[in-house]
Amino acid sequence: MCGIVGYVGGQSALDVVVEGLRRLEYRGYDSAGVALLADGKLATDKKAGKLANLESSLAESPLPAATTGIGHTRWATHGGPTDRNAHPHLDCTGSVAVIHNGIIENFALLRAELEGRGHQMSSDTDTEVVAHLLEEETRGNGEAVDLADAMRRVCRRLEGSFTLVATHVDAPELVVGARRNSPLVAGRGNGENFLASDVAAFITHTREAVELGQDQVVEVTAKSITVTDFDGNPGESREYHVEWDLSAAEKGGYDYFMLKEIDEQPQAVADTMLGRLGADGRLHLDEMRLSDDDLRAVDKIIVIACGTAFHAGLVAKYAIEHWTRIPCEVELASEFRYRDPVLTRSTLIVAISQSGETMDTLMALRHAREQQARVLAICNTNGSTIPRESDAVLYTHAGPEVAVASTKGYLTQIVACFLVGLYLAQVRGTKFGDEIRAVVDDLRGMPAKISDVLASMDPVRALGRELRDATSVLFLGRHVGYPTALEGALKLKELAYMHAEGFAAGELKHGPIALIEDGVPVIAVVPSPRGRGVLHDKVVSNLQEVRARGARTIVIAEEGDTAVEPYADTVIRIPQSPTLLQPLLSTVPLQVFACEMADARGHDVDQPRNLAKSVTVE
Ligand code: G6P
Predict the structure, then answer these.
(1) Overall average pLDDT of the 444-473 stretch
(2) Cβ(410)–Cβ(307) under 8 Å?
(3) Using an 8 Å Cβ cutoff, are 217 and 228 in contact?
(4) Helix (H, G, I), strand (E, B) or coil at 22
(5) Which end of the chain has fewer surrounding CB within 10 Å, N or C?
């Protein structure tokens, strides 16, 4: 997500902050900005686009010299990637500057309150409310400004996840940070101190770091780093020495961005739900610019997407049809417009794209709009072309995905599809409120279950190494396990350059079973034995069929499902979950398996040969 840097010391704050932002460029961003505290005034500059835009603006209109400053690279969530939405954000009086990473869930309410008290907002961001709240909390009563105390009081009013860093004209040589569910680390230098979203930003200056705990505020001066909780009690923090080199630091100590992104999935899934599931269980999709009447008129849904996003669409079909009873087709975007699809004003096109720039998907959605269909984009990149050209957009909040093959992008696309399905069911009344609430509760439990899966991946990694010389791996699944099988096979092709195919388990006997011979690895995704028991038993039968013909069977099954054991050479356990939500768990071992196998075969996991992250040709 966004990159954050703060500095107080003896050097040029601008140089330190801009250098830090450059070190955080790997995180991906769409705008950048700085604020310096010079001569009792704030001097700021911010520009959409690359850091180079900000740097040329700074070269044209230099800011005064300063030794206290903050800087930010933004990955847009609320409000497009424009100059005015770039951070830092100031209050009405220009006294406080704030930068932020994360999502402030209750910002709409806070914004309305602040506007009611006469504050003027100058951006579309959730962040700006913090600047105005800090303004109120530090409003002159003749006493010196206690910025840290103001920050603590503001944080107590915020919901969601955030890293905040602020500086105030009446609190010179001080930078204050705060964090909840979003990273912030301090760097301890000699006569200078740093704050950053990760150590990569200051590793060339110091390797002594202070890790902040949950719900903590940190006050940074040139000489001190003071940590408290949101109530002002002394906070616990962990001092450590950074051993990583710069390249490892960028990857958070992981060998590949993909491994980091796989581990970020619990957070990415939680962030994608943040602010959208009300405490009352009702769904709030504020970014839907289609009216409820439009949604009630929908008589057909067609999901269009490419690659991994297409597999998210396949999962969506099961959920959307089940919850809404609206017929839902899923089509490869590259095929869509060439078959002259039947589209009307009542057709809802759901275009899924992590990058928002995939040309096949873009051309398909343009075709759909020409035929009067409405388009809802599910996208991870704010302000990209696909959401811009759509009637409505629901952003996944996965944060930037650097590895070419999608992982956290995929899980969050599935979550977004579930949210769309539930929203349609709510608007059209095809599910009762308590039924929707039950699914919402299940969804809320998924990040913790994904973490459980991630914590038990050692045997999967060992398996990836053991099977590195296989010539082919087959994947089987039924129902939502079928797209999971397709995604498992795609990951293996993309990363390990190995022949892999995913099959609907029931289709096996109609041809693919001829591929089974002694020792062929077959990975089967087994549905829950609870709920749709028939489905489970059918996959277990298919498992028996391949095992009887010599396949080496690797089975992904729920905890407690002992029925698979007689037919499995290896069982990979995942927590119990409702069948429809199972892909959020069963996909994870397949990602880890493909990564490990690719690494064992000596491939660059992040940049597989012949592939591009954003394919802008048809
Ligand atoms: C490329 C990538 C795939 C990705 C597909 C769709 O082919 O290599 O990993 O799934 O594009 O990308 P999108 O950005 O539209 O989701």
Answers:
(1) 97
(2) no
(3) yes
(4) helix
(5) C
